[in-house]
Amino acid sequence: MTERLIGIGILGAAGIAERAIVEPARVLEGVRVIAIGARDPARARTAAARLGVPESGDYEMVLNHPDVDLVYIPLPSTVQADWAVRALQAGRHVLCEKPLSANGTTAAQIAEAADAAGRRAFVGFHYRLHGFTRRLLEVLTSGVLGDLQRVEFDFSIPHFVVKPGNIRLDGDLGGGSFMDVGCYAVDLTRAAWGEPRVVSAEAVLSADDPRVDLQMDAELKLARGIPARIRSSFIGDDQGSMSLRVVGTAAQLEATSVIVPQWGAELRVTASDRVVIEERAVDGENSYARQLEHVAAVLRDGSPSPLDAALGVGTMRVVDEVYRAAGLQPR
Using an 8 Å Cβ cutoff, are 124 and 95 in contact? Predict the structure, then answer.
């Protein structure tokens, strides 16, 4: 029996839409990108022509298109909730780019609107669907490390990547390193060990916009008081970092390229001088393709998802607390 086609509409002409949705949809059966909308319809037409999307227009056209089932929203976090709620009220499912919304309050509005409309809302933590991340979580919760002693994340983007004019540096658009990459560490922490408590945070602020953290160092506590330290940064060295280190009484774990596993992620567990586990991400597996495949599957069968917005609300509430601990307002 042929599965019903899932039509996708995109709000905004952001570059991430090509990598996250358009490219995976070209090879995934049963999904098709139907339309793209932008505030400036001319920009949407240009994007549609370049990407091979059949229809273009403004945001309202996408929300009201009869063939659109799922709306992908890669807009600035400060406006994502408004458009997600409108899409849900129009009877569409939504996939919001991470970190779901600007703060825990507006994130909850998305989850509540999905419940009220009887539709699904997802947050685009694409890395969660990659086989490497699934294996990482399996190892983290297996007991092979013994009793946890400390957890350390370093998600630092090379200093030359986030340049002046980038929306990540705009406070009005929800900019900041913890919003951009620290949220991944919070999401993975919650997936592996449950709800953390924020103890302290210290930010290096942008001279151009003091609302924006160029770097954040946050200390969290896990169950039984285990310390978890998260660094997010736009001022990393030339190599940058997407690393996780976990020290236990029996062994220690190191993982690289955690945010984007297809960029050569490696997992290594050692006990004294002995290598217990040493694995690499499978060549050719793409986290964005896995995400779209997963979302299409759960829309068809109704099963729960680690990307459900109701779960993402908790991550945004921790992000809010980190900003407060650093003396900043949530986005």
Answer: yes
Strand 241-248 and strand 252-255: pairing? antiparallel
**Helix 104-117 with 309-325: angle, nearest 10 deg:** 170
Here the tokens at position 311 are 């779960």
Whole-angstrom distance, CA of residue 234 vs CA of residue 240: 9
- Indicate the pairing of strand 266-271 with strand 274-280: antiparallel
Are β-strands 213-221 and 197-205 bridged in parallel, bridged antiparallel, or unpaired?
antiparallel
Residue 311's H or E segment, with its range, is: helix 309-325
142-184 per-position pLDDT tens digit? 999 999 999 999 999 998 999 988 999 999 999 999 999 999 9
Distance CA 77, CA 106 (A): 10
**How many CA within 13 A on the CB side of residue 304?**
3
Whole-model pTM: value is 0.96
Pairing between β-strand 227-236 and β-strand 241-248 as defined by DSSP bridges: unpaired
Would you name the residues annotated as active-site residues?
98
* DSSP 8-state class, residue 308: B
What is the per-residue pLDDT across 256-286, written as a single tens digit (0 to 9) for each?
Answer: 999 999 999 999 999 998 999 999 999 999 9
If you write DSSP's letter for every residue of 286-297 in order, what string do you get? -HHHHHHHHHHH
Burial of 229 (C-beta count, 10 Å sphere; 0-12/13-18/19+): middle
19 Cα distance to chain centroid: 14
Q: Are 39 and 60 in contact (CB under 8 A)?
A: no
- Report the b/e string of 196-219 with b at 16+ CB within 10 A: bebeebebebbeeeebbbbbbbbb
CB 230 within 8 A of CB 182: yes
User: How many other C-beta atoms are found inside a 10 Å radius of the C-beta of residue 29?
Assistant: 11
Rounded Cα distance, 318 and 301, in Å: 31
